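Page 47, continued from p. 46.
Same chain as before, 403 aa.
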Amino acid sequence: MAQQIIRRFVSRRGLLAGAAGAAGAVALARTNAIAQQKAQLATPASVITNPPRDWTARHPAIYPDPDVIVADPSFNQVRRAIAPIQRIWTGALWAEGPTWSSQGQYLVFSDVSGNTLYRYIWDDGRVSVFRRPSNNTNGNAFDYQGRLLSCEDFTRRLLRREHDGTITVIADSYDGKPLNSPNGVAAHPDGSIWFTDPGYGDQLAEGHPDEVGGPANPQGFLNPRIGAPDAGAIGGRKRELPTNTYRWDPSGKLEVVVPEEVVPDPNGLCFSPDHKTFYLISTGKGPGDTGPGGERVIYAFDLQGKKLTNKRLFTDMTVDGVKCGPDDMCADVFGNLWCSSNAPLGYAGVLVFNPAGKLIGRIRLPEVCANLTFGGPKRDRLFMAASQSLYMLETATQGAAPG
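Result:
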């Protein structure tokens, strides 16, 4: 009798345990399902989330980076999915002009308003002053001999820094008249240098205003020499030329390749990897412009020898109905164009187009991106000078420009 009671008790306990185990398994499965559902619904912190993404090094992003957006599957060929956007430095007033030195393993970039050239050193990620004052240097580029080309807004000229430290003035005038303020520059394998000459440096923050009567200071209310007694001592005193795009030949000859009436207010420029296509940005209305100003689009031209033909619209930089004003661009070895975007939060950053002008990818930044370039030892890092900061993203492609 006692054994029967024990057997009944054991049987009941096993039954209860089994029932409890089954219930626990069901509960666990339900919990896992809810957790998976929540995981699927979770939104990684990004530029557009609330709260927004924390860009400090102590808060890494999940892979793939939520702010690197695939607009077309072909973007996956040049995007590295396990690479985050990194803010590697901040502290500028208006960052522009990044360019990479393969020989020196460093990046030069400008703080135009801060009147300083900086250098980001690859070995330790340190940022140091490269030149201060910089004469409000704007765009920079290395030529095919590894020499630094710089557009100085304050002196309104284009310079080349030789290997021995001396400076060569590439251009400061055309047809007997001073340049406006060289802005963007690109080197060609034939030794020529191509640059744009809008009037954006003709203002207090990025150079100096015209003297009285100039387009950027018609009534003379502004005194260009306050805080800058040497304004106009080197370079133009007031704007006299239209906003042209120029080609400088190694012989010293300077010629207009794109006049203002063809592309007003030119800014960023670059070549395709095979140097058969030339890209040129028309940005917004500059100081002293009396006409409608730039169109905030990108044009493409066929390059035949030293001449440009077949002008055509490459992109109007409109995404989802949002106008994303361009400033600069760079090409990768596949011919894709990586273009800076001046747009509202969520569209500010970089737009990537294939050679046919189709949008294939986007990079969202928490600041307006002005200029960008490829660099790093393998030239697979995209450096983005964005307002106050410098950002970097590892890619699966390489830049096509020299450096």
